[in-house]
Amino acid sequence: MTPPDPDASPTPGAPASGFAGPEPTAPLVERAEALALLAAETARARAG
What we know:
This protein has 1 helix and no strands. By secondary structure, the chain is mainly α. The model has no long low-confidence stretch (mean pLDDT about 75).
């Protein structure tokens, strides 16, 4: 069995890294920020 080619693109037209660019990561950043705000609010609520 041959090892997978590390330079092979997982999808046609996509770079080898597997990321199409900054666009797909933006929702993840927004989600992380929202989770951080929610965690802070939860901590404040628990603290009283």
